[in-house]
Amino acid sequence: MTEQVQQVKQVDPDGSASVRTTTVADENVTREEPKSSIAARVVWFIAGILITLLAFRFVLILLGANRGNTFVDLIYTLSYPFAAPFFGIFGYDLRYGVSRTELSTLVAIAVYALVAYGIARLLTIKQPN
């Protein structure tokens, strides 16, 4: 938001002059955001979608959701490629429909969040905090 300074000269009834200065905010002028800030927002948006998908996967597996359901199958299918690289960390037994805690999905969420943070910070490295 930009500001404009206005000076108004007033003449009092006794003949003395005074100058009054006011600052007016110009709300019509918009400041353009740096392109790196927009790129960082895009990175966080994509990471948010991925993390949400993995969180759905974690909760559905925790509750033992039935893969026969279309929504559950969609979540499992979409999240599998992003969770699969982390399956060997704690051992992985692929059983759907059984309630279990899939810790590797929690690790995947943490890793993707850290990677998104690093990329977003790298994109905005020259900007002040």
Structure, described:
The chain is of the alpha+beta class. It has a domain at 35-123. The chain has three helices and two strands. The chain has helices at residues 35-62, 70-83, 103-123; strands at 2-11, 17-26. A two-stranded antiparallel ribbon has the order 1-2. Helix 1 (35-62) packs across helix 2 and helix 1 (35-62) runs antiparallel to helix 3 (103-123).
Sequence-ordered SSE layout with sheet pairings:
Blueprint: E1 2-11, E2 17-26, H1 35-62, H2 70-83, H3 103-123
Antiparallel strand pairs: 1-2
Helix pairs in contact: 1-2, 1-3
**Order of strands in the sheet with most strands:** 1-2
Helix residue percentage: 40-55%
Strand content: 15-25%
Structural class: alpha+beta
How many helices? The count is 3
pLDDT under 50 segments (min length 5)? none
Form type: rod-shaped
Secondary-structure element order, N to C: EEHHH
Strand count: 2
Tell me about the largest β-sheet. Answer: 2 strands, antiparallel
Cα distance, first to last residue? 19 Å
Radius of gyration: 28 Å
Overall mean pLDDT score? Answer: 82
Q: What is the compact description of this entry?
A:
This protein has 129 residues and is of the alpha+beta class. Helices cover 49% and strands 16% of the residues. It has a domain at 35-123.
